[in-house]
């Protein structure tokens, strides 16, 4: 069996959630063999292999494509992602984009605003992969303000 660590920017976040950059079609079976049941792809439409949906379906994995434009992440994208994550609760989930930058930012936001994880802990995983560029840092700051739970 091929190791998941050979997939671009692979990161095991929890026992049930892993993230990465775009896996090669030849690596999809390793993801299935590792027990993943569902896949979310945040890559823009132009960055996703045409055969991806059919390949996941052939392997029996649920697949959802939520295209996020690299230069224009939106609060709508984040809200849709949070809803997808809630729908996947209890499943072993694999989330990817092109280079695990979009995903790491969205997982950072999800973990803080939806799971109420301490920011420093969520940031560790984010910064394992990258330090967000100005576009993404501005998006993260806006999303944190928008989705943060009310303080009493």
Q: How many domain units? A: 1
Describe the global form.
globular
- CATH class equals Alpha Beta
Q: Which regions have little confidence, pLDDT < 50, spanning 5+ residues?
A: none
**N- to C-terminal separation?**
51 Å
Characterize the quaternary organization of these chains. single chain
Strand numbers in spatial order across the main sheet:
1-2-5-3-4
| Strand elements, count | 5
**Amount of helix:** 40-55%
CATH architecture annotation: Alpha-Beta Complex
Helices and strands: which structural class? alpha/beta
Let me know the CATH homologous superfamily: Protein tyrosine phosphatase superfamily
Q: What is the residue-mean pLDDT, rounded to a whole number? A: 95
SSE pattern, N- to C-terminal: EEHEHEHEHHH
- At the third CATH level, what is the topology name? Protein-Tyrosine Phosphatase, Chain A
Share of residues in strands: 5-15%
Compute the CA-based radius of gyration.
Answer: 15 Å
Main pleated sheet: 5 strands, mixed
The count of helical stretches stands at 6
Description:
Strand 3, helix 2 and strand 4 (62-65) form a beta-alpha-beta unit. This protein is 42% helix and 12% strand. The protein has 6 helices and 5 strands. The chain has a 5-stranded mixed β-sheet with strand order 1-2-5-3-4, sandwiched between helices. With 152 residues, it is of the alpha/beta class. It has helices at 28-33, 52-59, 75-87, 102-113, 119-129, 134-147, and strands spanning 11-12, 17-20, 38-41, 62-65, 93-96.
């Amino acid at each position: 069996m091929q190791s998941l660590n050979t997939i671009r920017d692979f990161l095991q976040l929890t026992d049930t959630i892993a993230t990465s950059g775009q896996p090669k079609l030849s690596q999809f079976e390793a993801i299935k063999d590792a027990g993943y049941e569902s896949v979310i792809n945040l890559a823009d439409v132009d960055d996703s292999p045409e055969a991806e949906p059919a390949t996941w379906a052939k392997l029996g994995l649920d697949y959802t494509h939520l295209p996020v434009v690299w230069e224009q992440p939106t609060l709508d994208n984040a809200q849709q992602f949070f809803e997808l994550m809630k729908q996947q609760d209890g499943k072993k989930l694999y989330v990817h984009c092109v280079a695990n930058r979009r995903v790491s930012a969205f997982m950072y936001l999800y973990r803080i605003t939806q799971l109420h994880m301490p920011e420093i802990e969520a940031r560790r995983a984010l910064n394992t992969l990258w330090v967000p560029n100005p576009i993404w840092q501005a998006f993260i700051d806006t999303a944190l303000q928008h989705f943060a739970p009310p303080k009493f």
